[in-house]
Task: structure prediction
Amino acid sequence: MRLSHWLIPAALVTAGTAGLINCLAAAEKDSKDEDPTAMAAAEIKARAVKPSDWPQWGGWTHRNNTPDAKNVPIEWDVESGKNILWSAPLGSQTYGNVVVANGKVYIGTNNHHAWLKRYPKTVDLGVFLCFNEADGKFLWQHSSPKLPTGRVHDWPDQGICAAAYAEGDKVWYVTSRGEVACLDAEGFHDNENDGPFKQEDNENKDEADIIWKYDMMGQMGVSQHNMCNSSLICVDGVLFVCTSNGVDETHVNIPAPNAPSFFAMERDTGKVLWTDKSPGINILHGQWSSPAYGVMGGQKQVIFGGGDGYIYSFDPAGDGQGNAKLLWKFDCNPKASVYSVSGKSERNHIIGTPVIYKGLVYVGVGEDPEHGEGNGHLWCIDPTKRGDVSPELAQDKDGKPIPHRRLQAVDPKAGEKAVPNPDSAAVWHYVGFDKNKDGKLEFEEEMHRTCGTVVIKDDILYIADFSGLVHCLNALTGEQHWTHDMFAAAWSSPMLVEGKVYIGDEDGDVTIFKHGPEMEIIAEVNMGNSVYSTPVMANGVLYISNKSTLFAIGEKKD
Result:
């Protein structure tokens, strides 16, 4: 790929300046002067939660992590307890993100702390914990014993990686066993058993009260790879789920190509409404992204990141016959890129969550961190187009279309070629910026693979890549404002609140930036252990978990 294609927004390359201007004008017509903080607050207030709760990953359906809060702390100390309202021990590895709803705090981890007597720390479990929001008191735990098939389906010590969705008196989440579980938010503390599952420990009331479970492996034939991770989203009483269907231990075979990758189900009953298997035989590795939802161009859309590197948009209602209704799909990789599990791969899939802002969709590509660092792509997509809206189309030597292939869509050595797609929905494409103008991208100038999700406000976008670079861009043009090297891997995503951007890294540092086009670090606070999760604000309290402990952070009152 020529350097010019790295530096120029994709819409300018494929559609000309007029195409970019028209696309942005259409986006602003749909949602002019969009304030994601106000929109998130309005959506949350319409749900059966407290007005300042944060009841799902990203807080709301656009997945833009921009909560509303005042006097957010920039100073705290986990050793002295300064501004630590309470803390709660978790497992030895924690990748799940905090959700706060109706006086409860939920998070996933592993069993290293052993909250339940019947499961000592030597027993490996996926653990979903519920704490009291006011003081951090442990309330109950839902336990997921490891699958007997081992690490190919359920990697040791990884625990629960998905974030929950909570509303009213219930909470839903995806277990490490590939189940969608609906639980009573009160557990057995209300002295009621709300489901068909027997309480194991009646004495301490510390077990989860399970209302229903849906087994994706047993009932759909899914073969999840390494772990199951999908942070649920709910719209109009319907849950949308990614199954994590993937490869086997060889990383070559796909055991269940016809099993669903995405589906919709009734929130209250667990009844499946429609399914989709689009990635099919082209799944590269696993599928660990989470869906987003929005109304764009007058059309309701639920958007999934696929394990084949495509973004898919569906009509949330399906086709009425149990199948998905595809609106558009977008290949986030250059057609000539090659996939490999060696760590040298140029082709990636989607791990982060799509974010919706001003009627546009934003997503970066990534890979399992076990496979190392690599090149990345960050896209801004116009969701009003239909069909295959990828930037490029694959053609053979005779100019005929080539069906998508898993490892390489276009082989130039065979005379195949990638041609510009006249229906491309690419608004811009960012792979870095040649700041020193030497004709090549240095490490500090490049966008790398990311596990993270963007955050956007005031037309300024932030994202951290797995190599530890924080990128700040103009969200409407893709032009770079600045980058900052945290010198440690970043697994998590940024939070933007009260004019400040918070992002954690593997060294345990939380860097706090001033929100704006000029890079300014306000503070850097160490959490005492690696931070793999994303900071969350709810009801004026900042929640950050490191590998082993959850901290509720706020101004202490004497």
Notes: The two ends are 60 Å apart (CA to CA).
